[in-house]
Each structure stands twice: as C-alpha cells, then as structure tokens.
Write a structure and sequence with these properties.
Radius of gyration: 20 Å
Number of helices: 9
Largest sheet: 6 strands, parallel
Structural class: alpha/beta
Strand order of the largest sheet: 8-7-6-10-9-11
Strand content: 15-25%
Distance between the termini: 27 Å
Order of helices and strands: EHEHEEEEHEHEHEHHEHEH
Number of strands: 11
Helix content: 25-40%
C-alpha cells in the first residue's frame, strides 16, 4: 500500500509541487531518510483535506520535487462527525484508545474530568503533543483525510451545549444493566437518515463509571442514555464499540 502523509505546510506543495526540509520537516525526513525514496517512487500527500498521488521526480539535500500529481477521489471520512468525550486513563491505555479511535473514523476527541476517574489531570500540556502525534500517525496509517481535533476541557460536563444539528449520547452502565437495548440503534439510525443531523457527541466514562449527578447534567443538556450491550466493557473498549456501531449503521447500511 502506498504510504500517506499529512503535510505540515500544504501551501508549499500546492504552489511548488515540492516540499522542503524547512517547511515540511517530518514528511521530508520520513521520505528521504526513513523510506529512502527515489525518483519514480509514489506517495500519497494530504493537503488541506484533499489527497494526491504523486511521483517523486527529484531529491536534493533540502527539497523533494514531485510530478504526475493526481487527486484521489476516495473519501474515507465518516459522513457524520463523531465526537468522543473521554476520561483520562491510567498507564498507556489512553494512547491506545486515541490511536484506535482515529483509525475507526472519530472526528474529535475531548478529554475531561469525571468524578470517578482513576487517572488525574497532570502535565496535560506536555502530553497533548504526544497524543496529537499518535493521531497523525494513525490517520496516515488508516489513509484518512482529516486529523481529529484533540483538546482537554476540564469542566466540559458542566458547560456542554449541543447544537440543533447534534445528537448527544452518554454510555451508562446502569442503562445496560436495566436492559436498555434500543436507544443507541435508534439514535444512530436517526443520524444516518436525517440530513439535518451533522454529527453525534458521545460521552463515555472512566473505570469507576459516571456519577448520577454527571448523568443528570448531561440529560439536562439533551443527552440520551444508551446501553452498549449486555457485557461490561472497559473504559478503553466502550468508545471503540460505539464507533464500530456508528460505522455499521451510518456508513455501511
């Protein structure tokens, strides 16, 4: 499979059909030093939400030139934007979750505090660049056109407001325990069939679950409680279950 790269400075490629070590250092380094690209090698480059198949024509010390540049028509993005609202997780579980959520088509990731979170918010400013790099690598591997936005909003649950074009979902263990089985399917089907719906916002809690006060806040903001099947899922598994269900009912139906 042809490798795909997101350009740091798309304007350089768009205007000059080339990239330099100065303006696109990561892609330049990967092509020249890691892949050891040669004239005639093909690569996919993403610039401003569009992908292009390009053939390397010349390599110098600080510039790679391309020719035979053609637009790639295939659009791998979800037709509805899926925003995941997630807790901070212990160990490297969040790294893995962010990677897999990107591969499955997530459009935005918002990290926030929950009452029952095991992991606490610390040194977030230092961690965000690493998580964004994980997103970029995962988006390139899965041949996406868009990098999901990532942010930490510590008071998100207290301030959330859904737009008229969004459906809000909150995965709650008590809904699953009570036998609720239809809300997720109905909400995803509504999103798939209604062109006025632009996306979904899904809140998924930490290892300790979501408190009743937090559920009340979300319900008051218009969120619907949904069950994710009869089994209890780990905090890093539940978001992937929801994304897979969304892909099935929105993309593949």
């Amino acid at each position: 499979m042809t490798a795909r790269f997101f350009l740091e400075d798309p304007a350089e490629f768009s205007s000059e059909a080339s990239i330099t070590q100065t303006h696109n250092p990561d892609v330049f380094h990967h092509l020249k030093d890691v892949l050891r690209a040669r004239a005639g090698d093909q690569v996919e480059l993403v610039a401003q939400g569009a992908a292009y198949l390009a053939s390397v024509s010349d390599l110098t010390v600080d510039r790679i030139k391309f020719q035979s540049i053609t637009a790639i028509a295939k659009n791998p993005e979800m037709p509805k934007k899926i925003t995941l609202v997630l807790p901070l997780l212990k160990s490297d579980h969040l790294d893995w979750l962010i990677q897999k959520a990107t591969e499955l088509g997530c459009g935005q990731i918002i990290l926030t505090n929950f009452v029952y979170s095991v992991a606490q918010a610390s040194k977030i400013d230092r961690k965000l660049p690493r998580w964004k790099k994980i997103i970029k690598n995962a988006a390139e591997q899965s041949h996406r056109l868009v990098l999901p936005d990532l942010s930490f909003q510590k008071d998100y649950l207290q301030t959330v407001r859904l737009s008229a074009s969004q459906i809000g979902l909150v995965a709650w263990e008590e809904s699953a325990k009570s036998g609720e089985t239809s809300n997720l399917h109905a909400s995803l089907q509504k999103a798939a069939q209604n062109p006025a719906i632009s996306g979904l916002v899904a809140v998924l809690g930490p290892e300790g679950g979501i408190s009743r006060n937090e559920i009340a806040l979300l319900q008051n903001a218009g969120f619907i409680c949904v069950g994710l099947g009869p089994r209890i899922l780990r905090a890093e598994t539940a978001p992937l279950y929801l994304l897979s269900a969304a892909s099935l009912l929105i993309e593949l139906s």
